[in-house]
Amino acid sequence: HVQLVESGGGSVQAGGSLTVSCAYSNFGTGMRCMGWFRQVPGKGREGVAVVYSDGSTGYADAVNGRFTISKDSAKNTLYLQMISLKPEDTAMYYCAAKAWGCSLRAARQDYWGQGTQVTVS
After folding, report:
1. Distance between CA atoms of 71 and 35, rounded to whole angstroms?
2. d(Cα 34, Cα 70) in Å, to the nearest integer?
């Protein structure tokens, strides 16, 4: 079965940087899209960044220019590099995969990881 395991979360001061990772496995014929989403208590899960199988990327307006999504297929790992972090970036960050198409909408994802907490103070 598909597995997504996030790591790299932690606490950082405002203005700092952090990179979170997602190790994936058992994709079979492959996933067309992978992405990062985040959620704070009491709010819905929101899309942060996605990367399509052809390498094209998409970002939420709130993180565009500060976050970079990338994928290393040789290592089966998805990354989210975050710079100039703000307190409002504090959230649980989730890795997701989608078999067909690409979307920043959480409801359209097919598979999810367990999440990694990022706290910016």
Report:
1. 10
2. 10
Cα four-point dihedral sign 112, 115, 120, 121:
positive
Beta partners for 18? 82
The alpha-helical segments, DSSP class H, found in 11-114 are: none
**Sheet (strand 3-7) strand order:** 3-7, 18-25, 77-82, 67-72
Q: Which token pair is 25?
A: 């496995």
Residue with tokens 């598979």: 111
Tokens representing 47 are 């899309």
pLDDT tens digit sequence for 12-70: 999 999 999 999 998 877 778 999 999 999 999 999 999 998 999 999 999 999 999 99
81/79 Cα distance (integer angstroms): 6
